[in-house]
Specification:
The protein is mostly beta strands. It has one domain. The chain is built from 2 helices and 5 strands. It has a 5-stranded antiparallel β-sheet. Bound molecules: calcium ion (2 copies). One calcium ion binds next to strand 1.
Length: about 130
């Protein structure tokens, strides 16, 4: 099924997003990340995604943008005037993106490999790894 009519099966979109969702780790003292059954996976952030294919020099690429949504920002920022926690506020969101390269193997199976992670700047796969 391709409900968004982008030429890529929506189930494949979901599988790729599940496989390539970035892992976000927090400091052990992070006090503002919420947990509970209301969050998929049991804790924040709530992650939504958008997947779309595109051609780059004849090769098939897949772009995925992950929106990471939080109920509260604890105001932790290393350079904020006033010190840590002074910019605390409800809600917060950011996004991360990945670009994947799809290649078809001789046995007919498709393989997806990370090309880069985009979190404000592009990080190539040799920097961030592909696992
Ligand atoms: Ca689709
Ligand atoms: Ca799509």
């Amino acid at each position: 099924m391709d409900e968004d009519d982008d030429g890529l099966d929506d189930e494949i979109e979901g599988l790729l997003a599940e496989r390539f969702v970035p892992v976000i780790r927090f400091a052990s003292g992070e006090a503002h990340v919420k947990s509970g059954a209301q969050f998929p996976g049991g804790k924040e952030p709530f992650v939504a995604f958008n997947v779309w294919p595109r051609k780059v020099d004849g090769d098939l690429r897949i772009n995925i943008v992950f929106a990471t949504l939080y109920t509260r920002d604890g105001g932790y920022y290393s350079h904020f005037p006033g010190g840590q926690g002074t910019n605390s506020h409800p809600g917060d969101s950011s996004s991360l993106g990945v670009e994947l390269e799809l290649t078809q193997k001789p046995d007919g199976r498709w393989m997806a490999e990370l090309v880069y992670l985009n979190g404000g700047q592009k990080w190539a796969r040799d920097v961030v790894g592909s696992d």
